[in-house]
Amino acid sequence: MNAKLLIASTATALSLLFVAGCSSNQAIKTTDGKTIITDGKPQVDDDTGLVSYKDAQTGKTQQINRSQISNMSELDN
Fold this sequence. Notes:
The protein is α+β, with helices and mostly antiparallel strands. Helix content is about 25%, strand content about 35%. The termini are far apart.
């Protein structure tokens, strides 16, 4: 029983480290010159052309059309 608990705990800890290591803030530069800082990596919907992101300032999930984005880059956290 203890071995199963240890394995489950180790797997959970590794999963959390993997997820935490992969999420990084991004800077989205728009065609009108604005810069949006995201909390985590934005998700691109290829069907609609929309980019969904969580705004780092407000914490709200927003969407922007891909045609309004001039550049997306990862920030050093």
